[in-house]
């Protein structure tokens, strides 16, 4: 059976460098959305199965239910897919930049579409949660997460919504960069956390954040 790293290598190709800005793809002028669901991560096969890329994985899971596929957006360093969530038009998005520049393509897209921060859902890895847990919050500090720092800077606010996927912290004395860039611990529990993160994003859109929090947080770790 192929490993999770092999699976993501096939999915993303063999390049370990960020994808170049696409010259063709979805026409941004034709896109319309009330919400953005943004999965954070680093592009390239080298990073595809790492802890830092759980946001990418959750967006893939979100799209898999309806068979939707991400496509490059012309003139923007990102890929997107329109998704209908209970009659609400949503755009699922992944940046083509490295994590620390995540806000560079996301903020201009949100501005073009007129999507305010309170309707931007960001799915990301969280060191301060136990591995496998999923929590929802609005705003707050970035806690050293470079993807969130970039989004806050470019959006000009911290008031976007967050689906936090716990990855835990490294053993005492361990390197945080090495930890977040190491492969995930593939298991049914890990798969469940990714599915829960995707479901959390859908619930926020469909039911609102308080109801989504009650549903997701009631499941425990």
Automatic annotation (TrEMBL):
Sites where the protein binds tRNA: 47, 98, 100, 146
EC number: 3.1.1.29
Pfam families attached to this UniProt entry: Pept_tRNA_hydro
InterPro entries listed in its UniProt record: Pept_tRNA_hydro, Pept_tRNA_hydro_CS, Pept_tRNA_hydro_sf
Cell compartment(s), UniProt: Cytoplasm
Gene Ontology process terms (BP): protein quality control for misfolded or incompletely synthesized proteins; rescue of stalled ribosome
Residues annotated as catalytic: 52
Residues with site note (Stabilizes the basic form of H active site to accept a proton): 125
PROSITE patterns: PEPT_TRNA_HYDROL_1
Predominant localisation class: cytoplasm
HAMAP family membership: Pept_tRNA_hydro_bact
NCBIfam families: pth
Family statement: Belongs to the PTH family.
Protein name as catalogued: Peptidyl-tRNA hydrolase
Species of origin: Corynebacterium minutissimum
